[in-house]
Amino acid sequence: MQYFRALATDYDGTIAHDGVVDEATIMALDRLKRAGRRLIMVTGRELPDLQRVCPRLDLFDRVVVENGALLYNPATKEERPLGPPPPPAFVDRLQSLGLQPLSIGQVIVATWEPNETAVLEAIRDLGLDLQIIFNKGAVMVLPNGINKASGLGAALEDMGLSAHNVVATGDAENDLAFMRTCGCAVAVGNALPAVKEAADMVTDAPRGAGVAELIDRWIDREGELLDAAIYRHSVLIGATLGLGQEVSLRPDRGSVLITGTSGGGKSTLATALLERLAEADFQLCLFDPEGDYDNFAPTVTFGDANTPVAPEAVLDAVRKLGTNVTANLLGSSVEDRPEVLANLLPAVLDIRARYGRPHWILIDEAHHMLPRGQDAGAGINLDAQVPTIFITVHPDTLAAAALRSVGTVLIIGRNSLGLIESLSQEFGRPCPVLPERGPEVGEAVFWACRTNEPPVLIRTEKPKGAVKRHTRKYAQGTLGPDRSFYFKGPEDRLDIRAHNLSMFLDIGDGVDAETYLFHLRNGDVDTWLRTSIKDEELADEIANIAANESIDVAESRKMVRAAVEQRYTAPATPD
Question: Which residue segment(s) compose the domain that 136 sits in?
C-alpha cells in the first residue's frame, strides 16, 4: 500500500551532521523521491545559510526555514514569509545591547543562551506579541503562533497534502511541534530523550543513517509505519459488551460494510463514524442518493432534489485540502444515479491516488448504486487501499468488486444474525461462531471478516459529539486572546500566550520550573481549563496534581501532559 505520501524532515542533527548531508543520505532521499513520495525540509536555519550548506535543496518539493516562518519552493525559487518582519525597535534594542551572536532573518530573530533573559526583557518592555522557542541552546524569537508545525501546515496546504499522509522525523525539542501533527512521527537514533518518548518509532542509527533506515523500511514495509502510529489513524466504533474492549475503525483493514434490517439504525451508526472521522481531520467524500446526509455539518453538499450534481464542482471541492464533500444525487432520476456514481467515483479515486485523500468514501444505498446485476463496480478500483463505507440492506446484491474490498462488517438489527452466514458464503469462508443473540438498539455486531476472530456484540457510540474528548477544537484550534492561557510567572516577567492545549503543553515543557509551578499551584491552569476549555473533569484532575506538593516539576509536567492528551490529542485505542 502507499498510505504515506511525503517525508517532512528536520535538517541539523537529522539528515545533516555538523551541517553536512552525506552522500548515503542523499541517495536515500533520492530513492524516496523516485518511489513517488514528496520531500519537505523543516528547519530553524535561515535560507541563505541553508543554501550555503545544503547543495541538494533541489531534492525537496518545499523547504520551511526560520523555524516555520518562511516557505521556499526550490523549483520556482519563490520565497513566502509566513509572518511579519521583526519589529525594528526590537532589533535596535538587541543590537544596542551588543548581543552575540545575533541573526536577523525575514521573520525570525535568533541568538543563543544565555541571551534569552535580555531578549525576554526587550519583549516585555516593548510590549511585543513575540514568543521564544528553544532548541539545544539556540534562542529563536518569532511571532506568536509561528513554529515548525504552522510552517509545515503552510507547505502541505501549498502541495494539497494532508498531515495524516506525512511521515515526520527530527531530533530536537523544536521538532516536536511538527512531528506531533503528522501521520507518523519518527525520531532518529541521536534524538533527545523527550523526542524519542513522543515518537511513534525510533531508528537504530543516528542522523542521516537513521533517515536512510526509515526510508528503507518505508519503501519495503510501509505497513510497519502505519502500525506504529495506528492510533492516529483509527476512530472509535464502540466497545464489546461485558469486557468493554474498544473496537476501532482502521484504514488498513479494508472497506466497511454496514448492513442489517431496514430502520435498524444503519444511518445513525454511519453518522457517528463520520463525525469521528471528520473530528480527526480525515477528508470525507459521501455519495448520498437519497439526501440523508444533507444536514451533516462537516461536509459541503453539492446537488439537491431540484439540482443534479455538477461533477466538476464536486471534484474541485475534493481536490481542496480540508474540504469534506457530499454529492446529493436526488436531482438525478433513480435510474441515472448509478451512472452518476460510475462517472464520479473513478475521478475521486484518481485524486486519492495523487494526494492520498479523500481518506474515506461513503456510498449509501450501495446495492442500488453498485448493483451486482450490472456488476457496476467491475471497472472501479475498490481495493483495500481505498477505505469505503458501504451502507446497504441487501448486501447479497452488491457488486462483487465492492464485496471483495470489505474487511469489516457492522450488522444492525435484532433478527439480522443470518446475514453473517450468507455473507460467509459470499466471502467464500466458513461461517464463524455467531453471538448468542442479535444486536439491540444501540448495539451492533462487529465482524473482522478477514480474520479468524468470531463476530462480537458491541455497544456503539452515539453521534452528535458523544465522544467529546476526541475533538481537536481545543487541542489544535485557535482560541481567542481572552480564552488563551498566558505564562507570566510570579513577577509578570513573561507574557507567552498559548492559544490551544497543544501549545500550552509545548510551552509548558519549555518555560522555567519556577514559572510552571507558579501557575500550576496558583490554580491558574485548572481555572483556565474550567472556564475556557470548559472541562470540569480535566480541571479537577489537574487541581489534584497541583495540590500534591511532593511531586517535582518534571513529574508534574509529565502528569499534566498525560491527562490532557488522554482526552484531547490521543484518539481511541485501536482494536
Answer: 88-143
